[in-house]
Amino acid sequence: MEVYFENAKQSIDDQEKQLWDLGHEIWRNPELGRQEFHAHRLLTSFLRERGFEVEEQYIAPTGFRASFGAVDRESTGKLHVCLLCEYDALPELGHASGRNLIAEATVAAALGIKAVIEKNSNGKRLGKVTVLGCPDQEGNGTKIDAINQDFFKDIDLAMTVTPYSANISKPTMLTIMRVTLSYHGKTAHASAQPWEGRNALDAAVLCYNNISVMRQQLKPHMQIHGVITSGGVKPNIIPENTEMKFYLRARDHIDMAFLQQRANAAFVAAAKATHCEIEFNFTDHPYSNLLSNDALAKSYQKHAESMGVEFTTKCDLLTTPVGSSDAGNVSHVVPCIVPAFDVEGGVVNHTSEFTAAAGEEAAHSSSIRVAKALAMTAIEAMNDIAVINKVREDFTAVHGDSTALTSWN
């Protein structure tokens, strides 16, 4: 097994300069979700040149899948490992979530796994590795589309990483529901005849205050954050239409149902108080909470620590949510891990400081280390029947037999 690990790490080291160039080019050219055409071209070309079978525009115009190897479970029990590759950026801030690093790390891990498959293709228990290009993690959740199109029925385990300010093998990721609210009133001259109007901005302001007051009585890990995206055009025109966007987060879908009910009451109350009409538009791609596979997470931490990665033991960091991801949805259908890794900048996500840190060599070095750890985690599961059986047992213990994949039977 150690020989396999060294093969994987050496393969990644041999292409470290090219991987840096790949990730840095994505960082230098941030693209919003479903607009990542440059990143799509870079990633698909990079993987095709290195022997992967690539399908462009897979599921979405900027999505792809790139595979190497083969699966024949009936005769060999070979496994299929999926690396979830993300590359979209944030408005104005660029790669303040560090998805240039996610792209680099997942591609690097795939190269390491591919190297081992190539060198041990004479009947050894290995299998197949696929990089799934997942655009628009910030919005539409392409991984959910992949689930709905049965992509994961052929997958045995899935992995990705999330750039952060600490190393955590099993980070907390919350369920998230996105909603757009529109309030509709009636225009009038704000000075001459204000009584003729119905102020949609008043509705938006009341709504925001209703939510702010409600936060005091929410359970831990229940969160609501929102912005007014359209509030009117001119002070002396009573706004006829306003728009707000809210993110609702909770520990799981049970808590989300409760939170959504509370939030809906606050939304509607603002409309009633101002005699405005309200329009709801809830996302049809809610993200699920992350259910990290315990066996995979322990394996990943073991391999990462072997390369000098230090994992935090601070309770506040271990219990604080790192956000939400549609990788959470994947974790409900196949064993999955999304470890958080420190970009070495001592900065907080979704800030300009994090954007700068994500383009530094220190962050690149961190992404290479976690890529090696991901590769070794996958290789261990692909080679050791006891390990993959423990992975499956942990998954079944959380989800029950009814959700186990047919490919395991």
UniProtKB/TrEMBL annotation:
Q: Which residues form the signal peptide?
A: none
Per UniProt, what is one Pfam family of this protein?
Answer: M20_dimer
Q: Which GO terms describe its molecular function?
A: dipeptidase activity
Which stretches make up the Peptidase M20 dimerisation domain? 176-272
Superkingdom of origin: Eukaryota
Identify its protein family.
Answer: Belongs to the peptidase M20A family.
Q: What is this protein called?
A: Peptidase M20 domain-containing protein 2
